[in-house]
């Protein structure tokens, strides 16, 4: 680093030797942790907080019935997950239609399975189905925070972004 005096920012590992080397090699440079280590720090912090509250967490009872508010049971998927799911469904529909087309042409289940690189049982299921068999959505079950969701959303909209502070508010409410 001494050969490159223009270094202004160093993204480094958390080890002390790297910090010392960065201080000696580029004393004016700003040191920061790389993305991996930031996430690792976060994970370790979350683990410590959960470890401290493990007895309280063991006493939490999950709700057995859906909450009265329908917004609690909404499932929010990330857009890339939704696109991935739609692409997978499109592939399955295309495969179903191919099986139906080949059955109408008179091919055997074994021949269709060989041509489409499918298991023969899957070909038989697709051939016998009158329409594309949609996969049913898994039932949405309320999460551990469901009883507190309205309160948490309200506090979040009020500007409270401190997760530990929100956790303490929930604990204080029982």
Write a compact overview of the structure shown.
With 174 residues, this protein is mainly alpha-helical.
What does this molecule look like?
The chain is mainly alpha-helical. The protein has three domains: 9-52; 62-74 and 143-172, no CATH class; 79-128. It has eight helices and two strands. It has helices at 16-25, 35-52, 54-59, 79-104, 109-116, 120-128, 149-157, 163-172; strands spanning 9-12, 30-33. Helix 5 crosses helix 6. It is flat, with a radius of gyration of 27 Å. The model is unreliable at 63-73 (pLDDT under 50).
Keywords summarizing the entry:
174 residues, mainly alpha, 2 strands, 55% helix
Mean pLDDT over the full residue set: 83
Radius of gyration: 27 Å
State the helical fraction. 55-70%
Domain count: the total is 3
Per-chain topology:
Layout: E1 9-12, H1 16-25, E2 30-33, H2 35-52, H3 54-59, H4 79-104, H5 109-116, H6 120-128, H7 149-157, H8 163-172
Parallel strand pairs: 1-2
């Amino acid at each position: 680093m001494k050969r490159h005096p223009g270094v202004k920012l160093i993204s480094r590992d958390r080890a002390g030797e790297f910090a010392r080397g960065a201080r000696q090699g580029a004393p004016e440079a700003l040191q920061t942790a790389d993305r991996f280590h930031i996430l690792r720090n976060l994970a370790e912090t979350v683990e410590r907080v959960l470890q401290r509250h493990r007895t309280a967490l063991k006493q939490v009872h999950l709700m057995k019935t859906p909450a009265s508010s329908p917004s609690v049971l909404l499932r929010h998927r990330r857009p890339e997950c939704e696109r991935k799911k739609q692409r997978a469904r499109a592939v399955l529909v295309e495969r179903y239609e191919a099986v139906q087309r080949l059955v109408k042409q008179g091919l055997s289940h074994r021949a269709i399975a060989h041509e489409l690189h499918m298991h023969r049982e899957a070909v038989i299921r697709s051939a016998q189905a009158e329409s594309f068999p949609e996969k049913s959505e898994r039932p949405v079950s309320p999460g551990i925070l469901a009883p507190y969701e309205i309160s948490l959303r309200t506090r979040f909209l009020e500007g409270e972004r401190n997760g530990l502070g929100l956790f303490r508010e929930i604990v204080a409410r029982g």
